[in-house]
Amino acid sequence: MKKLIVILTMILSFSSLAADFTQGTHYTKVDNPAPTSKPTVTEYFSFYCGHCYRWSKTVVPQIKKTLPSSVDFRQVHTYADPVTEQLSKTFVLSEQLGNAPRIEAAIFDAIHKQKRRPTTKAEVKSLVLDSGLNAQDYAQTNSFMVSAQVRKHGKELKQFDIQAIPTLIVNGQYKVNLQSIKSEQELLALVKYLTTI
User: Fold this and answer.
1) Whole-angstrom Cα distance, residue 7 to residue 5?
2) Distance of CA 39 to CAs 18, 49, 192, 194, Å?
3) 15, pLDDT greater than 50
4) Quick check: bond before 166 cis, omega within 30?
5) Residue 169: C-alpha distances to residues 108, 165, 173, 176 (Å)
6) pLDDT, tens digit, for every residue of 111-164?
7) What pLDDT score does 3 carry?
8) Theoretical Cys-Cys bridge with 170: which of 23, 86, 104, 194, CB 3.0 to 4.6 Å?
9) Number of H helices, E strands in the chain
10) pTM for the model
11) In the chain, what are the domain boundaries?
């Protein structure tokens, strides 16, 4: 009975929060939408971003935990030069190999805890190999499949005009205005709300 009361309280609090969300304040409709075939939340992030690092430990796990199983959660690493592009390729490859969470955590820790910020592609390779990806797998970062996916991500970054990170885009149509969010609970409720409109 106590568990049921807690669940009902959470549902009611999410419902009351959803009623207060307004376009232009809490979220905006993107100028060049690309509606997804199913509800999808996408986080645009960078391994170099300290805020993204903190999010990876706190907010992202909560978003994944809160979203219904019918909603996809995906991540896109942003890039602007050959070094950050190599990190993007590494992240895409780790997703394809099924070990993205482990590799993501190791790269974030190497950069932010150990202060190993790579400035060359060779330094990226060294960091990634130390993070648990073997040399044979790492060689696949130059494969057609990985490169094609990274190019696709680059088009998304331009289409959605990703200027700041982290950024959340929901259903390829709505950008969360993080500056308007007052709490993690409010962010989770907003993201969940946007997957339904």
Assistant:
1) 5
2) 17, 26, 10, 9
3) no
4) yes
5) 22, 11, 7, 6
6) 999 999 999 999 999 999 999 899 999 999 999 999 999 999 999 999 999 999
7) 45
8) 194
9) 9, 5
10) 0.89
11) 2-194
Residue 162: what residue type? Answer: I
Q: Token pair 């690092």 is at which residue?
A: 53
pLDDT digit string (tens) for 20-29?
Answer: 899 999 999 9
Pull the structure tokens for residue 101.
């969470």
C-alpha 108/C-alpha 41 separation (Å) is 21
Q: Radius of gyration (Cα) for the chain, nearest Å? A: 18
Residue 77 has what pLDDT? 98
Give the per-residue pLDDT at 65: 95
Residue 168 neighbours by CB distance under 10 Å: 23
Residue 18: per-residue pLDDT: 52
Other C-beta atoms closer than 10 Å to the C-beta of 79 total 20
The tokens describing 31, both together, are: 């100028």
